[in-house]
Amino acid sequence: MWLIRVFEERVAQLKRTMQVHGLVHLSIGGEGVAAAVCGQLRDDDAVYSSHRAHGHAIAKGAPLAATMAELMGRSDGLCKGLGGSMHLVDKRHGLLGATGVVGGNIPLAVGDALAARLSGSDRVTVVFFGDGAVQAGYFHESVNLAALWKLPLVFVCENNGLAEFTSRAEHSPVERVIDVVAPYGFGREAVDGSDVLAVSSAFGLFLEQARTGGGPFLLECATHRRRGHYEGDGQQYRGEQTELEWAKRDPLPRFQAQALKRGWVDSQTVVEIEAAARAAVEEAVEAARSSPFPTPELAAELVYA
Amino acid sequence: MTRETTETTFVKTIASTLALAMRADEHVIVLGEDVAEGGPYTATAGLSEEFGRERVRNTPISEGTVCGVAIGAAQAGFRPVVEIMYIDFITLALDQLVNQAAKAHFMSGGQLSVPLVLRTQGGASGRGAAQHSQSLEVWLTHIPGLKVVMPSCAADAAGLLLSAIADPNPVVFVENKSLYFQREQAPSAPTPLPIGQAQLLRSGNDLTIIATSRMVGESLRAAQRLADEGVEVDVIDLRTLLPLDTDAIGRSVSRTGRAVVAHEAIRIGGFGAELTAQIQELAFDFLLAPIQRVGAPFTPVPLSPQLEDAYRPDADDVYAAARFAIEWDQPEVPAYASGSTTAGES
User: Mind listing the domains of chain A with CATH numbers?
Assistant: First the structure.
């Protein structure tokens, strides 16, 4: 979580100084979901992500330097600098793709889970999406298919209550996403996405069942993005009170306090974890900066496989 | 080497070639609306009986998501052949095709590939009216990362379908329902035909006709009529729209100096517009007449039988376009260009 937090804070700075390019969507304040979900997955378990993908990528094991280089449009980036923040892919670690089309990856995750089922594999597919994607036709069509075909797929909705600039209340009369899928009859649960242990335990149960022939499942995580829809968003739609409340629920200090209280870490280790994350991110930034930009020839070569 | 052929139909060839590919590779799966029942045109008839309903999978009427499911399965190592029953409904799958399938290899820096075939059929026939009769293939030819194949006969369909299934890229395979039930000869044991290669079906030095799909047969009929009148023409079956065989086009038109491009799609903004532009880029110095475009009028496809018949371009249209190009008189060299001082008479 520290890695994701520090990485994204650094991305925000680099975006302001125009060293990171393109549309950048940060998950600061919502890292707990990525950590609790991806931390339990194997490399061969596939993750499809949304446009807000840095946290999922890092938690799934994407190398920091290559991830940062990708955001900076460099040739040593995960995607050789051709994709950027919204198109992160790290096939080796099972990150099969972020997308710039809200909801656009959900059907692909269904297809991946179908492939797993047809291959007789016990791998599981996870798809992350926001509450904004729930109003897209893809979500409903995909839920229908995954339920019909009983696929090893876990839908993870990061419900931050905002679809771009607009509140969920203005987009749908159904407040909770788990209620949207109720008629399909599969396992679903809504948790506090800022409570890492709650996410971890709910997802763990779904994952275990999906691995052994169950599925699909939907995990709805109430979460929050402390920054704009994208970097540079003026955020006129924000309420001060809400921000204060969510600052208190920030998953990072909250989980840290839980870990200290339970004796999983001591205060020295906590300091070291943060310091190590900062050092790793700086190293990644330096490595990315020294990577050359891709050539037009490379772009032409990669149109067709 | 002579190859054994059998009498068949285009649509039977599709089903038998799919079966061949499914026998050869267990990663080939077929999905789409009603495919396990054979579909309305019997293009997948017999497949679910042989390969089961897991590999031949009926889907709900959710074209966009079904196309995405096929992309996801392709990215995971399968070779899905997804059917969009009518090309008119490809509109619902365009986001997946254009934003995901076509770009996945590029956007991932080469990590992902999408060995997907999207089979569909278009064309006006049988009074299908405006939402079941269109020819929309040109939209797809504007998208880097896709391949677009349009076979004109059963034999080519078999060879191109095998290549499409083996291709690591998303291939849109556009059939024409008018061709489905004609009796034709096709190889008993088809082998892959290369994607991206046009075929010269008839040779002559007076004019080049470049045609796709159903218009290939119509063009051959027009060519015969022209031959009876002493005009010999090249007829090129494009077979693949993307990637385009520009060599075949340039070679032919540089020799003949006259060209007709013919497709069933609406003439305005159709693929013929691209062909026309390519021809003037490839063979401008050799052109003896304006390039003629044959296509449908700029209206939706009408239901009424007389109107649908009139709407569909045919051999007569190709013949008329060819005659126009053949009879085109080169204007005399303008006075100002020849150095004469008689300008201003009119």
Answer: 2-297 (3.40.50.970)
| Interface membership of A111 toward B (CB under 8 Å) | yes
H or E element, residue B315: helix B315-327
* Spatial CA neighbour of A190 closest among A249, A239, A131, A252: A131
CA-nearest of B137, B199, B140 to B174 is B137
What is the bridge-based pairing of β-strands A162-163 and A166-167? antiparallel
The residues, any chain, with a CB within 8 Å of residue A298's CB and separated by 6 or more, are A75, A80, A82
d(CA A229, CA A219): 22
Q: Does B106 touch chain A if contact means CB atoms closer than 8 Å?
A: yes
| This prediction's pTM | 0.94
Give the model confidence (pLDDT) of A185-234 as tens digits: 999 999 999 999 999 999 999 999 999 999 999 999 999 877 888 888 88
Contact A89 B96 (CB under 8 A): no
Q: What single DSSP character describes residue B291?
A: P
Q: In the A/B pair of chains, how many CB contacts fall below 8 A?
A: 148
B38 Cβ contact list (under 8 Å, min separation 6): B15, B44, B45, B46, B47, B48
Asked if B5-187 and B199-327 have one fold, the answer is yes
CATH number, span B5-187: 3.40.50.970
DSSP secondary structure code for residue A127 in this structure: E
Q: Do B73 and A114 make contact, defined as CB atoms within 8 angstroms?
A: yes
ipTM of the complex: 0.94
Closest CA of chain A from B105, distance in Å: 7
What's the rounded Cα separation, in Å, for the pair A36 and B194? 48
The model's pLDDT over B48-87, given as tens digits with 9 standing for 90+, comes to 999 999 999 999 999 999 999 999 999 999 999 999 999 9
CATH 1.10.238.10, domain B199-327, yes or no: no
Catalytic residue list of B:
63, 132
